[in-house]
Design goal:
Layout lengths: L4 E4 L13 E4 L6 E4 L2 E4 L5 E3 L14 E5 L4 E11 L2 E11 L2 E4 H6 L30 E3 L2 E12 L10 E15 L26 E2 L9 E9 L1
Parallel strand pairs: 9-13
Antiparallel strand pairs: 1-2, 2-3, 3-6, 4-5, 7-8, 8-11, 9-10, 11-12, 12-14
Keywords: Receptor
Protein name: TonB-dependent receptor SusC
Length: about 230
């Protein structure tokens, strides 16, 4: 048995069990989304897919490459400032060009969970007449810039205190803000969308799990003494 493609990824969507989201193929990096390409919604709220092979019907044979979970650029910026007795530092990091499958929207934004979603009355309504499908409609640009941490400190004059060399107070914050166009909970999803021991662990990145809990924002106040 030989094959030139291995299909992987299994985002949880009711009614779409076993439908994969990624493909592994020689010559292409891991993390390629391979699924039906959505070209919008019809006037009655149904998905409209691109007929890739032009045979007049939409089947699995119409799946195609629709984006990558791998970023074009990963960046970080770390800096420290000091002015007199004050000091400050920050770390910003992010990615550009990566896609994420908004699985919570696909899983819960359909008529299985939303009462009345099978009757679209407004063309601007974002609830579908049919159940969700694994398709590019739920793929989003997940480029982001996150202020990962920031700290501000003040050092006291201790020259008149013989037993104390340095004294400093500071306040620090983690995950202060994220700049992104992604509409899900967090554009920075884990590499392993479930158990790291799963058969496709690491081979289908870029899926926000439907039960994902976003990163917390935290603040710390501290005192440093050097004797």
């Amino acid at each position: 048995y030989t094959t030139d493609r291995i299909y992987t990824g299994d985002p949880w969507i009711r009614g779409a069990s076993g439908v994969t989201s990624h493909v592994i193929e020689e010559g292409r990096p891991v993390g390629q989304f391979f699924m039906l390409k959505s070209i919008g919604l019809t006037s009655d709220g149904k998905f409209e897919m691109e007929d890739v092979n032009k045979d007049g019907q939409i089947t699995d044979d119409d799946r195609t490459y629709v984006g990558s979970a791998q970023p074009d650029l990963t960046f970080g910026w770390n800096n420290t400032f000091s002015w007199g007795k004050w000091d400050a530092s920050f770390f910003i990091r992010g990615t550009i060009g990566n896609m994420v499958l908004n699985n919570p929207l696909a899983a819960y934004g359909n008529n299985t969970y939303i009462s009345g979603a099978n009757a679209m009355k407004n063309e601007n309504l974002t609830i579908f007449r049919e159940s969700s499908r694994v398709c590019s409609y739920f793929l989003e640009d997940a480029s982001f810039a996150r202020l990962d941490n920031m700290a501000i400190g003040y050092s006291f004059d201790t020259k008149n205190v013989k037993w104390l060399e340095k004294a400093r107070i500071y306040v620090a914050a983690q995950n202060l803000f994220v700049i992104t166009g992604y509409k899900g909970l967090d554009p920075e999803v884990e590499l392993f969308r479930g158990e790291a021991t799963a058969t496709d662990a690491g081979l289908s990145p870029g899926i926000e799990p439907r039960n994902y809990f976003p990163k917390a924002r935290s603040f710390t106040f501290g005192v440093n003494f050097t004797f």
